[in-house]
Amino acid sequence: MSYHCLGCSETFGIEQLLYTCPACGEVLLLQDLEKNRLKGLSGETWRDILDYRRMLKIPALKGIYRFHEFIGPVIPLDAIVYLGEGHTPIVEANATLQEAAGMRFFYKNDGQNPSASFKDRGMASALSYIHYLVKSGRVENILAVCASTGDTSAAAALYASYLQPSVKSAVLLPHGKVTPQQLSQPLGSGASVFEIPGLFDDCMKVVEALSEKYNVALLNSKNAWRILGQESYSYEVAQDLEYEMKNKVVVVPIGNAGNITAVMAGFLKFFEAGIITDLPKIVGVQSEHANPVYSYYLEPDAKKRRFEPMTAKPSVAQAAMIGNPVSMPRVISLVNQYNQRAGKQMVFFTCVTEQEIMDCQLVANRNGHIACTHGGETLAGLIRARKEGLVHSDETAIIDSTAHALKFSGFQEMYFEDRMPAEYGITPKKELQNAPVFMRPEGLKEVPAPGAPLSGEAFREFVRQTADAIAEKLTLSLREK
């Protein structure tokens, strides 16, 4: 394997940690110098191998490295770090949601990863590579650093903690822009946590300065090993759909643009190896509050396109609140490759409002899902793409919920309590609001309390009156005798 520069096309060995090209400073992608060997087996044989591995009990092959030949084949199995990541389920939406979207679709619930987000896929790859370097004596006493809006820091701290004392971690967060649930995760994993003024983009610049000047391992999506691990998302989708990707649509949110890059790269690898015979449509979704990638592709003429970073506004989809995505050069390169291999345009971009994001998250979770705000963003993006004619009713979509709903429960609370800050531009809808009801019938003289339970007639009266009051509230009918 080698690093390949997207700017000057130079290649570099993987014996050292590289994040940008030493020659021109552009971002890197990892390339398999012997990828033609993958074509030595038929697509049918590969499918048999990958399906067989689902039954194995070897920890290193249970997670993303079930697809070892496609993700870091140079890393020996004894260096692979497996914490339970990958193999997250795809769950078909119920009839109500499918009617709202105008087509059949599934959620892929990546919130069921160990740190409760898709970032574990990339961290399993990045930290396995670092573990390989440590075990082979190439590096020692690693300090892994990252900038984050929450999920990256949680994953980085978790995986680094597994490799201590050889690896320690430090994370930089934008002050006041990370949910309490997300902040608690790197703290709980023992990372050094620094909050700085500004937004994610500001944190990223500080981390880049640290990686350029000091001996640290950068774990943001500038790290090409991160992108490599996130390709597993595509492989799992293909396998769960029996490798039949014709008339399929994969919808992903865009933050730092690493995930959409990885998704495209993964499907291309499977396509070139003959494992899948069709490339699915890819729809990238951004919020109006941070949409530089969407804005870039608004220009239909590729020769006239100019990427313009923007100042991101507050977004409930916090990981998407990035105005200058690091992986933009990767996106441009992979979109071109993907459309060329498909023989037509198969990558599309759409933009949604903050109102749509929040409403769609709540609607999804009222219909059996555990979608985060980014899962709301992808559902809103699917509905918008359907209206714009980018996708059609005879297609089937797989939409990404990147994290667990509990990570963003604070936004739900603000929505329910009608106290969303004005800068989000969200007005709660009464039909989506919910709140607990304290139930104590007025006629009750005694009620139970901690350390002071009721008994006898007093307890029976409490149960009777409370049950009747709840039944009245819910307009229940009496059982027929």
TrEMBL record:
Reported cofactor(s): pyridoxal 5'-phosphate
InterPro entries in alphabetical order: Ser/Thr_deHydtase_PyrdxlP-BS, Thr_synthase-like, Threonine_Synthase, TrpB-like_PALP, TrpB-like_PALP_sf
Pathway annotation: Amino-acid biosynthesis; L-threonine biosynthesis; L-threonine from L-aspartate: step 5/5
Residue ranges of every copy of the Tryptophan synthase beta chain-like PALP domain listed in the record: 83-396
UniProt catalytic activity: O-phospho-L-homoserine + H2O = L-threonine + phosphate
This enzyme's EC code(s): 4.2.3.1
Domain of life per record: Bacteria
Alphabetized UniProt keyword annotations: Amino-acid biosynthesis, Lyase, Pyridoxal phosphate, Threonine biosynthesis
GO MF term (any one): pyridoxal phosphate binding
N6-(pyridoxal phosphate)lysine modified-residue sites: 119
BP GO terms, sorted: threonine biosynthetic process
PROSITE patterns (UniProt xref): DEHYDRATASE_SER_THR (PS00165)
Family listed: Belongs to the threonine synthase family.
Entry-linked PANTHER family: THREONINE SYNTHASE FAMILY MEMBER, THREONINE SYNTHASE-LIKE 2
Name this protein carries in UniProt: Threonine synthase
Species classification: Bacteria, Pseudomonadati, Thermodesulfobacteriota, Desulfobacteria, Desulfobacterales
